[in-house]
Amino acid sequence: MADAVRLPLEKFFEREARHPNKRYLVQPMEGGRLEELTWAEVGDQARRAASWLRGRDLPQSSRIAIISKNCAHWIIADLAIWMAGHVSVPLYPNLTADSVRQVLEHSESVLAFVGKLDDWPSMADGVPAGVPVVALPIHPKSEFNYHWKDLQATPPIRDDPKGQPDQLATIIYTSGTTGTPKGVMHNFSNLAFAASHGVELFSTSEDDRLLSYLPLCHVAERMFVEMASIYAGQTVFFAESLETFLEDLRRARPTAIFGVPRIWTKFQMGVYAKMPAQKLDRLLRLPIIGRMVGRKVLAGLGLDAVRIALCGAAPVPEALLDWYKRLGLDVLEVYGMTENCGYSHVCRAGKQKPGWIGQNSPGVDVRISEEGEVLVHSGATMQGYYKDPAKTAETLTVDGYLRTGDKGEQDAEGNLRLTGRIKEIFKTSKGKYVAPAPIENRLAVHPRIEQVCVVGDGLPQPMALCVLSEVGRQEAANSARPELELSLRELLEEVNGVLDKHERLQGLVLVKEIWAVDNGFLTPTLKIKRNQVEDAYGKRFPEWIERGETVLWHE
């Protein structure tokens, strides 16, 4: 494929020349104003910032951090760092000061761009002394060494630096459900391989619209939004906040959207908050009316123009995908990791096999190890972990295959099914191994369960800790509680009926906390931190097992 070797900056310069006045980035500003930047304006600002960076005479491939929520200048800063010959190091916008320091010191970042943030004071102390901080146009009220306008006063660079295929482009620190984040190294060739193949796979074009709302520092958003827009020329809209998210979605009316399972569940719960699940399901079963209702629901969510809907980053309940299909939207499951630019497997429209996550993406080779681990290899596979050769050798095989840590199997058509995480499989006190993810997927179909974590390491039998949805919590607090409890008992009975004896759940524990990023239960990409769940509730496990209740309320 000709585009496979075209590097990101080369593609950006090509797009800039092709349609300089086309709208590229749409950024909500204070007071409800929208700032719209064309490809030419983005190129000019990036060139000026790159010129300023070059003027600092930093060593080639210096690491430069980006600490910001999603915004137009996140992408512009990234382009500027690359044009200046350096390496971008994105940080999650909600890290603690200790975590900020850990990443900046480990990466040896020499400068940091700081942009849109909710709580910069709690992060600022993590910036090591001697590391200058540059404020992007949207920034917290604070003291900064430099401001974006200082960089824009610099004459732009006059060359079009494209970089080299093997040149390090970025170090992406994993959010990590356990342990210390690792710095995943990707060169320009890795990004080019994944982006060029992905654009071809989904047939995206400059007519498409994207909404950027998941953290751009996460590989999925980086590839699906930043890289895809550079390679296909889409217009990118940015979400302003959680409070305005639905409004942002309706304004953008994206034609392509990527979401983690929790986001797709949130959409569903929002619909159920306005219309009971039973009523909606009854309407959707009606031939003509069902299609009209489905279209109306999608329009209310701002999803009526979507032609490419993807879900990934965590196991997706089959019932959730089926629900959207009944609305008229095919949500395709994708599978990938930070270590391979998120480019590995995807379901094909009209060819989904229930319970399977699709076939290899073009250029991806797969094999299953003797232990049942899924091993993948492609031009998107990382160069290794920064300053950690031992972990790199542990994760990459001698012939360059990536050990995913997922157990799985392939069928004759090349479809892949994941059967659990190798490291997440636990052993009960009876010596039996249990994979929690498939059980959690079965429980997640209940319209009142928003989050679930199956535990059981060292216990006689597993049990499931559940967080109810907002509607579920309301019902639990009023006269609907007995009916809710009955439906949960029926769910437990139904799930246990299809599990092996050693996997069967003793009960469901309905915890009172809502698991969120802020209280440490979720990673920034909304995955549940199992170790945090076990640390928070572990002391109660023996007592809950002893009580033997099928539905137990953790008051």
Automatic annotation (TrEMBL):
Span of domain AMP-dependent synthetase/ligase: 13-386
Catalytic activity: a long-chain fatty acid + ATP + CoA = a long-chain fatty acyl-CoA + AMP + diphosphate
Keywords annotated in UniProt: ATP-binding, Nucleotide-binding
UniProt KW Ion transport keyword: no
InterPro entries documented for this protein: AMP-bd_C_sf, AMP-binding_CS, AMP-dep_synth/lig_dom, ANL_N_sf
PANTHER family per record: AMP-BINDING DOMAIN-CONTAINING PROTEIN-RELATED (PTHR43272:SF33), LONG-CHAIN-FATTY-ACID--COA LIGASE (PTHR43272)
Protein name in UniProt: AMP-binding protein
Organism: Metapseudomonas boanensis
